Amino acid sequence: MEDPLLNFLVKFQSLVARNVVISHLGVENVNKICALDVAYKGNKGYAVAVYFDGQGYDHNVVIDEVKFPYIPTFLFIREAPLMIKALEKYQDQCQLTLIDGHGLAHPRKSGIATVIGVLLDIPTIGVAKSRLFGEEVKEDSEIYILAHGEKVGIKKGKFYFSIGNKVDLNDVKVLARKGYPEILKLADKLSKEAKGKNS
DNA sequence: GCGACAG
DNA sequence: ATCTTGTCGC
């Protein structure tokens, strides 16, 4: 890590990791949820925040030029700014925000879900479609994800759920049991729609 | 040096 | 993530 910028980002992530709050939210009793995802077309990013109020869905799209490339373990600097902008509309109403990517299942316990959760001081859970970091251990018919020896999430099918901020392993477990969240499928669909429209 | 590597 | 044809399987 001799690149000064990446070296700086590593320190930033370490600061974020030191400020993560792991506490019980009670996902089973939460009905107002948000989800974040981003689609790309060239150097344009199409971020979408989807909000479910317990009855129906609403969403907000934010489009902007993305300057930073994708570098494994540094996804947050590329996508978080746009995601946060898209979430502003519902930020005060969401009891929990699901984010496309990992949370604590990251080499520095600072995946994009954790970064956004700590920066905004809100409950978040990371949901990723593939592996980035951590050992997988089976226990009680569950596959736990360990980061530096600590249980930080659960693998369910082909998906990886991990603590972002202000939730605990129990919350993640309850969410994971239901499979890939419908609201994230919607976020994925809507971001790709926005991308197609703006061409 | 080699392999792994969210979106 | 995105680019992309046909193809294997429920």
Automatic annotation (TrEMBL):
UniProt main location, coarse: cytoplasm
Keyword set, alphabetical order: Cytoplasm, Endonuclease, Hydrolase, Magnesium, Nuclease
Location in or out of the cell: Cytoplasm
One Pfam family from the record: Endonuclease_5
This protein's record includes keyword Ligase: no
GO cellular component terms given for this protein: cytoplasm
Reaction(s) the record says it catalyses: Endonucleolytic cleavage at apurinic or apyrimidinic sites to products with a 5'-phosphate
Gene Ontology annotations of biological process type: DNA repair
Keyword hit for ATP-binding: no
PANTHER family for the chain: ENDONUCLEASE V
Record-given protein name: Endonuclease V
Organism (species): Stygiolobus caldivivus
Higher taxonomy: Archaea, Thermoproteota, Thermoprotei, Sulfolobales, Sulfolobaceae
